[in-house]
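Quick check before the chapter quiz. The format below is the same one you will see on the exam, so make sure you can read both the input and the output lines.
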Amino acid sequence: MTRVPRDINDLHLAPVLLALDDRLTELGLLDETELTMRVGLDSDRPDWTRAMRESSLLLTIERLIDCHGWQLSWAPRGLRVAHEAHSVVLGCPPVFNSYVQGAGCELASR
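Here is the expected output.
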């Protein structure tokens, strides 16, 4: 059964997903060291722990994108975009996993 949009936030879903997908593609082209530097500059947060890296990466992905009430979080399969009971998961590039695991952090600190 097709669900109709309930409010203005639902109508913004497609443009938000397209913008986020473009950002994922852009960041996915970076290597681990470049991504570490980009996240550090964009989020202006330390990357000492996995939780800090996950949070900083979310801020970098969302930077300059008006999500219109849709919230970003991590899901086992990628980036979850959610609003109330509705959610969509976008796949993430492999370099994100390397960054979150901390592989590029030692390289960037040298």
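If your answer matched, good. Residues 106-110 have pLDDT under 50 and may be disordered.
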